[in-house]
């Protein structure tokens, strides 16, 4: 059964190297919700993910992750870190990379599934097959990971993060290396996972436009604070003016894109990076 409330922060603050990154942050994320974390560089988006994992302790406030303190339920969290580079010369197949999501934390090499009596191996192989089909990667999963396109590789990495059936999936800028169709395709996939599996997805991104139609909620970091809510409530002139403390205007272009303008220089999170 999926958790009804996956994440809660109450007046939370986090610091790195003695410097407060953000403070007085309150938000909740329920199971099956697709949430984007937005804001300019250095605003603390990745710090939020590290706080959820228990890697950055809070300096104030309170946090609960899957009903426990941060870090206590990491076995129920799938995590795809920022800019995970893979050498094109590596001959590891996509299916092997996903299997590492099950066995990578253990000593030794998993026994082949075909060995008589190896029920654990067969169950693991079925789980890998199921999750590759879930992300529509089964057709190319037996090719070396270095031969895959950016979008194909991201689907394999998402499968690896999902293979242990997490209740929370966190992805740090997984769309950066993809073109616009690839970004939309991955966003549609993540929304489908939310809806069909009840998994909460928290995704850090610089450009919200390609994924905006798929989102349930956004968390916007700026000026050492954060605002959370429905996209239309947060990405709005009045809301961002209050967050930045200076006049900010949110414009909607003729093609539906949101463009944020104002002083200080508005972040590029809502500009067409692949125009």
Task: Give the terminus-to-terminus CA distance.
Answer: 42 Å
The percentage of residues in β strands lies in 25-35%
User: Structural class of the secondary elements?
Assistant: alpha/beta
* Mean pLDDT across every amino acid position: 87
The sequence of SSEs as H and E is EEEHEEHHHEHEEEHHEE
Using only C-alpha atoms, the radius of gyration works out to: 19 Å
| Main sheet record | 6 strands, mixed
* Highest CATH level, the class of the domain at 5-87 and 166-270: Alpha Beta
The CATH topology of the domain at 5-87 and 166-270 turns out to be Rossmann fold
> What is the helical fraction, as a range of percent?
25-40%
Q: CATH homologous superfamily of the domain at 5-87 and 166-270 - what is it?
A: P-loop containing nucleotide triphosphate hydrolases
According to DSSP, the number of beta strands is 11
């Amino acid at each position: 059964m999926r958790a009804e409330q996956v994440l809660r922060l109450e007046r939370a603050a986090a610091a790195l190297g003695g410097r407060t990154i953000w403070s007085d942050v309150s938000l909740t994320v329920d199971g099956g919700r697709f949430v984007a974390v937005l804001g300019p560089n250095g605003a603390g988006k990745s710090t939020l993910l590290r706080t959820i994992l228990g890697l950055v302790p809070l300096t104030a406030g309170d946090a609960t992750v899957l009903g426990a303190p941060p870090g206590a339920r990491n076995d129920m969290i799938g995590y795809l870190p920022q800019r995970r580079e893979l050498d094109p010369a590596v001959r590891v197949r996509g299916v092997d990379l996903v299997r590492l999501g099950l066995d990578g934390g253990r000593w030794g090499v998993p026994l082949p599934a075909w060995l008589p009596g190896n029920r654990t191996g067969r169950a693991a192989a079925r789980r890998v097959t199921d999750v590759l089909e879930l992300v529509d990667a089964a057709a190319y999963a037996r090719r070396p990971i270095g031969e895959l396109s950016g979008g194909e590789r991201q689907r394999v990495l998402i499968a690896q993060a999902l293979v242990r059936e997490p209740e929370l999936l966190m992805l740090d800028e997984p769309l950066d290396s993809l073109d616009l169709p690839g970004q939309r395709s991955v966003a549609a996939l993540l929304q489908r996972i939310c809806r069909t599996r009840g998994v909460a997805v928290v995704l850090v991104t610089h450009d919200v436009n390609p994924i905006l139609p798929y989102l349930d909620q956004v968390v916007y970091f700026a000026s050492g604070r954060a605002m959370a809510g429905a996209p239309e409530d947060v990405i709005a002139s009045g809301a961002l003016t209050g967050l930045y403390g200076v006049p900010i205007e949110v414009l909607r272009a003729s093609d539906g894109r949101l463009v944020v303008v104002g002083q200080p220089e508005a972040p590029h999170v809502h500009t067409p990076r692949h125009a």
